[in-house]
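Re: your question from the hallway

Yes, I did run it. Sequences:
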Amino acid sequence: ETGVTQTPRHLVMGMTNKKSLKCEQHLGHNAMYWYKQSAKKPLELMFVYSLEERVENNSVPSRFSPECPNSSHLFLHLHTLQPEDSALYLCASSQDHGAGGGGTQYFGPGTRLLVL
Amino acid sequence: GQQLNQSPQSMFIQEGEDVSMNCTSSSIFNTWLWYKQDPGEGPVLLIALYKAGELTSNGRLTAQFGITRKDSFLNISASIPSDVGIYFCAGQGGTSYGKLTFGQGTILTVHP
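Structure:
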């Protein structure tokens, strides 16, 4: 596997379900990101992990819970979602340079989520 | 917060034509990036610009980082059907991690 992979690629869930999205990066990067992409809206940054610490939580509802067990893996745990949460969820990774700034982000293929 | 205005929102062109799209910002960015997204896939990086005034090419694509650091453009020359997709600009500010602000995207349709 190369680059950034995401599973599952498609997910349909009911509002009472609990599910998790998984992201894995094979680029040796030290920062990982979750984005939400809804129709006709710019990509919305949800969470950022740098060196396995969460450095940004962009006012995301608590029904989304991220987890970063190591620098190569990132999860997004979903619980009691709403239909408006249906979207493409994208994971990205980059190489943080500390005070030198962030590196270029590389994206995974996304998970298409439908909440019924 | 930072906002990016990307235009045009959509373009319908004939194969062989040149394409130009741009992004403007109310804030200064240190890096400008251009991505392309195909249906059902994640954005793929096309060009990265790191210095004001920088002009960079990648095949038929050319992008420039504006002198004011508040704008960037992307040109595609001699378009082909596989250029179809959504093109996003993204600006990266001065945070120590690579937080990006994205434009709304330009939907490109190329007619054979």
